[in-house]
Structure formats: C-alpha cells, structure tokens
Write a structure and sequence with these properties.
By secondary structure, this protein is α/β, with parallel strands linked by helices. The chain has one domain: Carbamate kinase, CATH 3.40.1160. The protein has 9 helices and 14 strands. The strands form 4 sheets. An 8-stranded mixed beta sheet has the order 5-8-2-1-11-13-14-12, sandwiched between helices. Strands 3-4 form a two-stranded antiparallel ribbon. The longest helix is centred in the middle third of the chain and has 25 residues, at 94-118. It is globular and about 60 Å long.
Length: 293
C-alpha cells in the first residue's frame, strides 16, 4: 500500500488500535535476539532498527542481543581459515576466538549501535565480557573456546536501561582466568531475558515459526505450551535446528520470561506486528495451564 492510498484517517485508526498494546508494554522489558541470517539484508536491518527505536520511544525497555555467524564465517574465509562445526556448534580455537571477538564485540555491535543512534535512539553497546555480564566455562574441549554459561551479572544491563539506553549485547563470555568464550546467541538471550524478568523474548530467525508440516507455511502453530512443545519433540514435528531454538524458549520461561516468540526476521516490521497489533507473528511459546515451574 503506497502513501497516497493510506489516508490520514487510516493512519489515525492504526495508531488508536496500537494504543492498548503500547500501554501494556510501556515500562516493560522486551529482549530481542537478532542475528545470523535475519541480519543479512541491509534494508531489513534498517527496518528492524526503526522498529526498536519506535518501541523505545513509546516507553518499551528494549534490550537487543545479537549474534553474527555469517559475518564471522565471512571474515574467517577472507583470512584463509575454514569454519568448522560439530553438531551446529562452531569449533573455536584461539585464533577463531580472536576473529569472533573482533566481529561480534567490534564490527557488528558498533554498527548496530550506530544504526539505532542514526534512527533517533539512544544505544550503548556492551559485550558479555563487560562487567562480567556473561560468566562461562568451556563446554567441551573438542569445541575449544565455546562456552556454557555459569552465571549472569545483569547489573550492567539494568544500569543502561535505568539511564534510558537501548543496551546492545554481543554474546561473548569470560571466566575468572580471563579466557574468552563464544556463547550461543539464543542461549545467551534466554539467560539475559530470564535475569531481567522480561515480559517477552523475541527470537528473530529465518523461518516463519514452528510448522506442523515443514513444507507448508500455512501450518504455522501460533501458540505452543511447554507440554505441547515436548510432545512435538517426541513426534519429531520439531526437529533439527529448531530443537535448540525451542529448548531455549522453554529455558527462558523456566527462568521467568512471560512468553517467547520465534518469528521470521525476514518479514518487514515483524516486531511491530507482534507487539502492537492483534495479528501477532510467528510462534508464541507460553507456560500453559499445566506448568509447574
């Protein structure tokens, strides 16, 4: 729909319909996990940043947690180093860890901060190493410097939110000896959202959500309780790369997040559709009535 067709009356109508949602989320914390293939298109990146700034301007406390796998692969290949994966996890030797740190804490983090600032937001970038935000240990010696989270110090993020910033967090961890670890972005987002007691965690991916039939987008499951999700694991409806994603959603709810959305980051303004309209987007994972903590 172009601007001529979209009258001022329709614009006013849209804003009025968004009002109850704006009131609901005002002053609440929403964590957005953004990364991987959802970040590739420049136009989509710009739209995601616009959505985040708009939410921030209407009083939502947005925390942006990002990964950056494709960009890490790209720099590794340019430096003549071949990316290697075991069960979907990046094998990370010391040299690869240096590259991961450069790309995540450097290039991507600061680019996203800059984009948010250009759109009129107030953003501050930190990594999981800052203020010992993400404490970690080696997950498996075969994988090298891939970390599993041992603790979260959420204070640095709280401090930034209190001062009115949009915290932009790159998913690196560290241990007491000063080793740096590559942390799975979805896992980090679940832990951070849990530690913040977030109203909602939004996982932006390159799939529409959980499908009953993987080849038919019209079979999207719009809402899923934890017990239903566990049944779908058994039935192998949720399989492959979707398993760790949904497990992260369940983990976030166990940690105190109200609800988690898996949504397609390739759809323009999907964040606003999810938070500020009746329509919603993607699959929402909720506790369910039979949830026992």
């Amino acid at each position: 729909m172009d601007n001529q067709q979209f009258s001022n009356t329709q614009r006013a109508q849209v804003l009025t319909e968004a009002l109850p949602y704006i009131q609901r989320y005002n002053g609440r914390i929403v964590v957005i996990k953004y990364g991987g293939n959802a970040m590739i298109s420049e136009q989509l990146r710009q739209q995601v940043m616009e959505d985040i700034v708009l939410l921030w301007l209407v009083g939502v406390k947005v925390v942006l947690v990002h990964g950056g796998g494709p960009e890490i692969n790209d720099l590794m290949q340019r430096l003549g180093k071949e990316p290697e994966f075991v069960n979907g996890l990046r094998v990370t030797d010391k040299e690869t860890m240096d590259i991961v740190q450069m790309v995540l804490a450097g290039k991507i983090n600061k680019t996203l901060v800059n984009m948010l600032e250009v759109k009129g937001g107030k953003a501050m970038g930190i990594s999981g190493m800052d203020g010992q935000l993400i404490q970690a240990k080696m997950k498996n010696p075969q994988l090298g410097y891939v970390g599993s989270i041992t603790g979260i110090n959420i204070q640095p993020v709280m401090d930034l939110l209190e001062k009115g910033y949009i915290p932009v967090v790159s998913t690196l961890g560290c241990d007491a000896e000063g080793n740096t670890y590559n942390i799975n972005g979805d896992t980090a987002a679940a832990y951070i959202a849990g530690a913040l007691g977030a109203e909602r965690l939004i996982m932006m991916t390159d799939i529409v959500g959980v499908l009953r039939d993987k080849d038919d987008p019209s079979t999207l499951i719009t809402e899923l309780s934890i017990s239903e999700a566990k049944s779908l694991f058994k039935e192998q409806v949720i399989f492959g790369g979707m398993i760790p994603k949904v497990e992260c959603c369940i983990d976030a709810i166990h940690r105190g997040v109200e609800s988690v959305i898996i949504m397609d980051g390739r759809v323009p303004h999907s964040i606003l559709m999810e938070l500020l309209t009746d329509e919603g987007a993607g699959t929402m994972v909720v506790k369910g009535e039979d949830y026992h903590g």
